[in-house]
């Protein structure tokens, strides 16, 4: 694909941490500022030293397990760990409280997080260990972001949505499948101040296409996914980005984002 001019992180590199400062957009001027959190400097960080390959492998298994219960007809499936929304066919079901047709794959979930009925058997989708792993990963990423931007980790709050994504090369069927459009996370998600992406599969080993692209004026700058690689950035329009279409294989990632506004904070996903 033309227009790719610079690679910020190759799949084969093992980055101890790379930080690229970019001038903050004016987006922040119109937002309430939170001392010790709202970005004074904007930019992007990429690190292969925050999450181990083993942690990435374990969290990928959790993603596979959750997403295996559903799956979009069209290429891009998500499982939102906060709301329980899971892509199924052309729609979403709530994994945490699904009332499906009897005889469907997922018959009915209870109101308790992560429990569902299959036939007359109560199954638990996620274990306490799975949620513990999510919390450990979230905590490490939060510390890395705080350190890179010179802010205090305790002034960052987890915000929604936080989700697993699974992308393959199947053609899109609905607008929800169109993951490749350029966007600004602060606009798309509202509450995001700092976005992080943890990649759970390897570019060119597990899938082709699917590189992350920062669309800067005059240059596209890519991050090649690598299992265990964390990419994080301020969520304003200084970090307009897109994901290339996946052309073969399956790409897994998890999105974990933080807000400076305590009103937009959510608790870690948990078994209730
Ligand atoms: O999966 C990625 O690399 C990026 C996804 C993304 O841009 C988003 O979820 O907002
Ligand atoms: Fe995004």
UniProtKB/TrEMBL annotation:
Its cofactor is L-ascorbate. Residues 160-262 form the Fe2OG dioxygenase domain. Keywords: Dioxygenase, Iron, Metal-binding, Oxidoreductase, Signal. InterPro entries: OGFOD3, Oxoglu/Fe-dep_dioxygenase_dom, Pro_4_hyd_alph, Pro_4_hyd_alph_FE2OG_OXY. The keyword Iron applies. GO terms for cellular component: membrane. One of its GO terms (molecular function) is dioxygenase activity. Pfam families: 2OG-FeII_Oxy_3. It comes from the Eukaryota. The keyword Cytoplasm does not apply. This is 2-oxoglutarate and iron-dependent oxygenase domain-containing protein 3. It comes from Camelus dromedarius (Dromedary). The lineage of its organism: Eukaryota, Metazoa, Chordata, Craniata, Vertebrata.
């Amino acid at each position: 694909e033309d227009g790719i001019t610079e690679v910020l992180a190759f799949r084969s590199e093992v980055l101890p941490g790379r930080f690229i400062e970019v001038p903050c957009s004016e987006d922040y001027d119109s937002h309430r500022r939170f001392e010790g959190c709202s970005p004074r400097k904007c930019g992007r960080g990429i690190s292969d030293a925050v999450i181990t390959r083993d942690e990435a492998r374990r969290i990928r298994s959790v993603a596979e397990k959750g997403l295996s219960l559903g799956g979009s007809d069209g290429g891009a499936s998500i499982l939102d760990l906060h709301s329980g929304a899971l892509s199924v066919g052309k729609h979403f079901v709530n994994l945490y409280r699904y009332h499906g047709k009897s005889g469907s794959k997922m018959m009915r979930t209870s109101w308790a997080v992560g429990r569902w009925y299959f036939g007359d058997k109560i199954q638990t989708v996620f274990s306490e260990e799975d949620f513990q792993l999510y919390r450990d990963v979230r905590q490490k990423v939060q510390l890395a972001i705080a350190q890179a931007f010179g802010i205090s980790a305790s002034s960052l709050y987890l915000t929604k949505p936080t989700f697993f994504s699974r992308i393959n090369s199947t053609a899109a069927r609905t607008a929800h499948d169109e993951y490749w459009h350029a966007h600004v996370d602060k606009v798309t998600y509202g509450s995001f101040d700092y976005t992080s992406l943890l990649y759970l599969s390897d570019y060119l080993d597990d899938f082709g296409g699917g590189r992350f692209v920062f669309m800067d004026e005059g240059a596209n700058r890519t991050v090649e996914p690598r299992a265990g690689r964390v990419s994080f950035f301020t969520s304003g329009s200084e970090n307009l980005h897109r994901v290339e279409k996946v052309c073969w294989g399956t790409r897994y990632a998890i999105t974990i984002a933080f807000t400076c506004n305590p009103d937009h904070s959510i608790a870690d996903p948990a078994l209730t």
